[in-house]
């Protein structure tokens, strides 16, 4: 008969869960059954969201966003993940633990869950993205179930490039409620931003794009747009300076002509108060 003592002294306290659970280095960051991105739009649209996600009331060093990155969401099934088209987080450093580019976003290793997730509708994923298709009991939960019930993402946005329809859902009382748009935009006062549609050219492609605005509706410029705007301001400033210089030269010329005319009339212009 084997004897098990009722108490076994431990020299060291148990390690916290985040030190014993798998990290992003232990978990796969790709899936051979899901190779690459499906089309150009699924590359360009998340890129525009990435470039313009600049929460005004947050330190830029504590703002993170990613596209097509594995999002691991439950420690009960550590190999289960979703792969959002784009998501944004606040309160998280750009680098994993301030040191490394992320291979995946592992929620139990991070200080915060995503604040907003965007899915771009495709014919094959529409039912799951919109919560119409439920997962089987023996299968991983659907995106909708993960975002709403497990990660409790405050804002979930769905955009269709085929119909240009924008739908948004806000977490209210533990479940998603459809949001009304304000002047065509989704307001997110917690980060002083709004998300809406914009007709314009991005990477030389003219179409209707989803992008970030201020709460008041002003565009958040992408770095290239900011550089172009700065160049245009410099050109305008140079033109204004040249015009001011020309006007000063014309005024000086008029003053010299007036002084010469006074001298011809016998009046010394230097003696006139």
Features:
tt1808, chain A, alpha+beta, 273 residues, 2 domains, six-stranded mixed β-sheet
Span from first to last CA?
122 Å
The strand line-up of the biggest sheet is: 1-4-6-7-8-9
Average predicted local confidence, pLDDT: 85
For the sheet with most strands, the description reads: 6 strands, mixed
And the CATH topology of the largest domain? tt1808, chain A
Low-confidence segments, ≥5 residues, pLDDT <50?
Answer: 1-9
Strand-residue fraction? 15-25%
Structural class by SSE content:
alpha+beta
- The ordered H/E elements are HHEEEEEEHHEEEEEEH
What is the general shape?
A: elongated
CATH class of the largest domain: Alpha Beta
Task: Output the number of helix runs.
Answer: 5
Number of strands: 12
* Radius of gyration from the alpha-carbon trace, in angstroms: 30 Å
Please, how many domains?
Answer: 2
Q: Which CATH architecture of the largest domain would you pick?
A: Alpha-Beta Complex
In which range does the helix fraction lie?
25-40%
What do you see in this structure?
It is a single chain. The protein is of the alpha+beta class and 273 residues long. The chain has two domains: 17-220, tt1808, chain A; 229-271, no CATH class. Helices cover 26% and strands 22% of the residues. Strands 1-4-6-7-8-9 form a six-stranded mixed beta sheet. Strands 3-2-5 form a three-stranded mixed beta sheet, with no helix packed on it. The chain has a three-stranded antiparallel beta sheet with strand order 10-11-12. A hairpin with a 4-residue loop joins strand 10 (185-188) and strand 11 (193-202). The longest helix is centred in the last third of the chain and has 42 residues, at 223-264. It comes from Nostoc paludosum FACHB-159. Residues 227-268 form a coiled coil. One of its GO terms (molecular function) is endonuclease activity.
């Amino acid at each position: 008969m084997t004897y098990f003592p009722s108490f076994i002294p431990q020299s060291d306290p148990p390690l916290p869960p985040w030190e014993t659970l798998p990290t992003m280095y232990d978990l796969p960051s790709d899936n051979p059954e899901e190779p690459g991105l499906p089309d150009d739009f699924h590359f360009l649209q998340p890129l525009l969201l990435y470039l313009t996600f600049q929460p005004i009331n947050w330190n830029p060093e504590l703002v993170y966003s990613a596209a097509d990155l594995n999002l691991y969401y439950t420690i009960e099934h550590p190999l289960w993940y979703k792969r959002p088209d784009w998501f944004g987080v606040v309160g998280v450093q750009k680098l994993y633990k301030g040191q490394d580019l992320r291979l995946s976003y592992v929620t139990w290793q991070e200080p915060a869950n995503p604040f907003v997730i965007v899915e771009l509708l495709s014919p094959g994923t529409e039912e799951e993205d919109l919560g119409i298709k439920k997962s089987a009991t023996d299968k991983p939960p659907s995106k909708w179930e993960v975002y709403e019930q497990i990660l409790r993402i405050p804002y979930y946005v769905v955009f269709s490039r085929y119909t240009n329809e924008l739908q948004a859902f806000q977490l209210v009382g533990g479940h998603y409620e459809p949001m009304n748009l304000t002047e065509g935009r989704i307001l997110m006062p917690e980060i002083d931003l709004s998300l809406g549609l914009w007709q314009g050219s991005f990477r030389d492609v003219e179409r209707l794009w989803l992008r970030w605005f201020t709460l008041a509706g002003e565009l958040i410029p992408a770095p290239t747009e900011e550089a172009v705007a700065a160049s245009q301001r410099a050109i305008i400033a140079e033109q204004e300076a040249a015009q001011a210089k020309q006007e000063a030269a014309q005024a000086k010329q008029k003053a010299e002509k007036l002084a010469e005319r006074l001298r011809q009339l016998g009046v010394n212009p230097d003696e006139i108060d």
